[in-house]
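Appendix C. Worked example: Diaminopimelate decarboxylase
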Amino acid sequence: MLPKIDKGDLLVIHDTGAHGFSMGYNYNGKLRSAEVLLKEDGLAKLIRRAETPADYFATFDFTSLFQSADNYNTSKEFALD
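Step 2, the predicted output written as structure tokens:
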């Protein structure tokens, strides 16, 4: 059984391979975790913050969802032939 953890505890999931940031992906909306460097002196340093929902949705354009059909800008539509 794993020990009890509390908010603020540091958890280590090492050797993640393709599940780390460089080769990771947002499959099913999973946000990328923070990355921490374990230094030679034993201290841990945050080297990449965790992704937030704002990061995930930053490249989506939802404006067309809130426009009426009469005012919809069709210049962004394209065929998937």
